[in-house]
Amino acid sequence: MSNNKEYDFCLKMSRRSVKIAVIVGIASVILMLISLSVLVSEASAIAGMSKEMKILEYQVKHLEENYKSVVKK
Question: Which pTM does this prediction carry?
Answer without folding.
Answer: 0.64
